[in-house]
């Protein structure tokens, strides 16, 4: 059987939990073979391929990982703190460069201290650095220097999730 160009790289990256971004050369290979990959991931692993104009990732109903939850909490706290700091959090996520020190200041001074302390990936400086490294490996952030980074368009998945969750809470409240 002949596989699409860059098949191995596409599969390895998606299976390792990485977002494939539209700025990457393999994104076009994935996008032009979307029907094949939808079928491939469904029949091979029972995973669903989600492909937008900006990124691609896999969804599994059978996972016990908590990283997505922890990243969502990270974004929720960060957005709240940016808003409290009178900054447009959507503009900040899309256009600003952040420092690890800036993130630390927000998390050390948040009013959500109980939530932070109860989460092992957010509870302290080392844990948050590890979370940021995980986010970098998965293409959610791009490091611009050792202690500086920008968010990739993959952040939108977590913001959309938060919006959907907030909407469902208000509709069913």
Mean pLDDT: 93
Helicity level, as a percent range? 55-70%
Find the count of extended strands (DSSP E, 2+ residues): 6
Global structural class = alpha+beta
Order of helices and strands: HEHHEEHHEHHHEEH
Distance between the termini: 53 Å
Outline of this structure?
The chain is built from 9 helices and 6 strands, in the order αβααββααβαααββα. The protein has 173 residues and is of the alpha+beta class.
What does this structure look like?
This protein has about 170 residues and is α+β, with helices and mostly antiparallel strands. About 55% of the residues lie in helices and about 15% in strands. The protein has nine helices and six strands; from the N terminus they run H-E-H-H-E-E-H-H-E-H-H-H-E-E-H. The chain has helices at about 5-15, 25-30, 35-45, 65-85, 90-95, 100-110, 115, 125-135, 155-170, and strands at about 20, 50, 55-60, 95-100, 140-145, 150. The strands form two sheets. A three-stranded antiparallel sheet has the order 1-3-2. It has a three-stranded antiparallel sheet with strand order 4-6-5. A hairpin with a 3-residue loop joins strand 2 and strand 3 (about 55-60). The protein starts with 6 loop residues before the first helix and ends with a helix.
């Amino acid at each position: 059987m002949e596989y699409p160009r860059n098949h191995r790289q596409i599969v390895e990256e998606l299976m390792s939990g990485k977002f494939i971004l539209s700025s990457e050369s393999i994104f076009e290979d994935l996008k032009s073979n979307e029907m094949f990959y939808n079928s491939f991931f469904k029949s091979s692993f029972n995973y669903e391929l989600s492909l937008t104009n900006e990124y691609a990732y896999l969804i599994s109903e059978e996972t016990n990982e908590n990283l997505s939850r922890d990243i969502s909490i990270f974004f929720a706290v960060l957005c709240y703190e940016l808003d409290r700091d009178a900054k447009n959090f959507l503009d900040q996520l899309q256009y600003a460069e952040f420092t690890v020190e800036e993130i630390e200041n927000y998390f050390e001074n948040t009013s959500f201290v109980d939530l932070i302390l109860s989460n092992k990936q957010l509870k302290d400086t080392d844990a948050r650095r590890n979370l940021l490294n995980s986010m970098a490996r998965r293409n959610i952030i791009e490091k611009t220097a050792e202690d500086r980074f920008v968010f990739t368009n993959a952040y939108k998945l977590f913001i959309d999730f938060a919006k959907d969750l907030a909407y469902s809470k208000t509709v069913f409240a």
